[in-house]
Amino acid sequence: MPLHRIFINLQSKYFSPGYRCNKVKQYSLLATNTKMSAQYLDLAVAPADTAFGLMADFEADSHPKKVSLIAGAYRNQNGDPWVLPSVKEAKKRISDATHEYLGIAGSPGFVKQAKELVFGPLTAYLQENAASIQTVSGTGANHVAATFLAKHLRPSQVFIPSPTWINHKSIWQMAGVPIVEYPYYSPSTKEVDMAGMLQSLEQAKLNDVVILQACAHNPTGVDFSKVQWEQVAELVQRKKLFIVFDSAYQGFATGDVDGDAWAVRYFTEAVLASESHPGLCVAQSFSKNFGLYGERVGALHLFVPRSLSAQGARSELMLISRAEYSNPPRYGASIVETVLGDQDLRSQWKADLDTMSSRIHHMRNLLRKKLEEETQRDWSNVEKQIGMFSYTGLTAAQVSRLREEYHVYLLPSGRMSVCGLNESNIDYVANAIGEVFRNA
Ligand SMILES: Cc1ncc(COP(=O)(O)O)c(C=O)c1O
User: Fold this and answer.
1) What is the DSSP letter of 327?
2) Is residue 369 among the annotated active site residues?
3) How far is the CA of 142 from the centre of ligand 1 (A)?
4) pLDDT at residue 34, as a whole number
5) What does the pLDDT average to over 36-61?
6) pLDDT computed for residue 35 by the predictor
7) Helices marked H in 153-284 — which ranges?
8) Helices 137-152 & 311-324, crossing angle to 10 degrees?
9) Ligand 1: residues within 6 Å at CB?
10) Ligand 1 atom 12: the closest Cα is on which residue?
11) What are the angstrom distances between the C-alpha of 86 and each of 268, 306, 342, 345, 403?
């Protein structure tokens, strides 16, 4: 019933003729009713996103030596954002691109390239039982996967690594699936907590979902070895769990596009060989490996058991996309399609990946040496870790001191984006970390 009708009804009920109702009373009654009907809008302010909040603080900081080691975005040796030469060239080639809508499932040419990139030679075996759509980057792919699986697979719980990319939790919370955090990283060994993880996953039930990061784990930079991947695959197969691979760093992690897809392909092969496996999906991002952060380029690949057709699943994925954003963005996808579809551009792209991953590796090596000089302790883990991030082991208090006294910004968890380091700031950062460590 509209608010004014409720008010009139109440007025006629309580304020009968002869009753002298003053205006103050009328207004307070109206205010009470408004509050009751709009109670769902009376929300506590949600905590601000830590990384984006810190980035704003960094921007506002006027200190000449400030260093940002926050964002998961590549920076070149001068500390500047870098447009990959392969991307620059592709942009020239598509300069007269159309601005028409894409279809709901995105660009078929892009989706084909994306699928081949992640599954490699296995793509030939993933026809009828695979459904792929273009998504709004890796975040969108994770979100569409969660929405789809919550509705159709109906897992009793989703297992996410602890720690992990912050959005995994938010996305699955919004999908309404109970979350279990499985131990992923052991601060004492600075390696994967294999025993803890396997023990936790033993509690999973048929069709439960497990999130695995394909390579360059965010935030730890610590990946499974091949032997460890095989152990996880054995458990997943035995318990018939559904894997969501989050593949946000293919090629960016090590510079080797196929090597970085090893785990995804290993699991896919196992599913292909199985009669009874529930399937898996891959949420693929092109933000980091193409430097197309703002273009929101991604894909979701869903792979159902051999006995099934994925056509129905594909139509459901499209229903979700249609309702959420109608169709994905065109420009970034056409850049990726152009690069991957041209021999020369593809070779250039591989060289670009090498430029990024080698620079990061070089920074890791320098940082290790400098920190070992500063602190007289072992920092080999910084060099061993892979990809954009390093889990430094710095405490929240040490991170605060770095920010307040040295204007060096990291996440409170101690996660450092190694991309923010370069020859000009690495001494300053290492000295600052050294001082904070010595005087903890
Ligand atoms: C593990 C992981 N997954 C997914 C993403 C999603 O990135 P985007 O939405 O920019 O593709 C990120 C970005 O930092 C990530 O680290």
Assistant:
1) S
2) no
3) 9
4) 56
5) 85
6) 56
7) 166-174, 194-201, 226-239, 262-273
8) 120
9) 72, 137-139, 165, 213, 218, 246, 248, 285, 287, 298
10) 248
11) 30, 37, 10, 6, 36
CA of 219: how far to CAs of 115, 139, 412, in Å?
26, 16, 12
Q: Active site includes 288?
A: yes
Is 165 in the active site?
yes
- Among 139, 211, 292, 389, which residue has the most ligand 1 atoms within 8 Å of its CB, making it the best to mutate? 139
Please name each of the domains of the chain with its CATH number.
3-41 (no CATH), 50-83+353-438 (3.90.1150.10), 98-344 (3.40.640.10)
- Percent helix / strand / coil, the chain, rounded to 5: 50, 15, 35
Q: Which of 82, 165, 172, 349 is catalytic?
A: 165
Calpha distance 397→401 (Å, rounded) = 6
Q: What is the pLDDT of residues 291-340, one digit of tens each?
A: 999 999 999 999 988 788 899 999 999 999 999 999 999 999 999 999 99
Over residues 106-156, the pLDDT tens digits come to 999 999 999 999 999 999 988 888 999 999 999 999 999 999 999 999 999
Distance 28 CA to ligand 1 centre (A): 49
